[in-house]
Write a structure and sequence with these properties.
114 residues, mainly beta, six-stranded mixed beta sheet, four-stranded antiparallel beta sheet, 1 helix, 48% strand
Amino acid sequence: QVQLVESGGGLVQPGGSLRLSCAASRSIFSAYAMGWYRQAPRKQRELVATITSGGTTNYADSVKGRFTISRDNAKKMVYLQMNSLKPEDTAVYFCNAARALWNWGQGTQVTVSS
């Protein structure tokens, strides 16, 4: 059974915006916090943003002020609004529980290029 499904990625020019969506199973979504991760070619996967069940958010310094994480508890969805995108944001973006990780979904490709 698919438990994490990411969508919303695509090709965007520098300075542009994208909104990523993550549909999570009830078990995963019940975690204390959900997070968005990304992995660029030849780089380690990194945590970029988290949001607790109560709505408290944290961001990596590299995206602070540009990205906004949110959640809809009724729909069991997590979102990542990405503004002022830079080429270094190019990566495959994944969602998951922030601490006790489940199996990864397919992710969604974000490419920032002119």
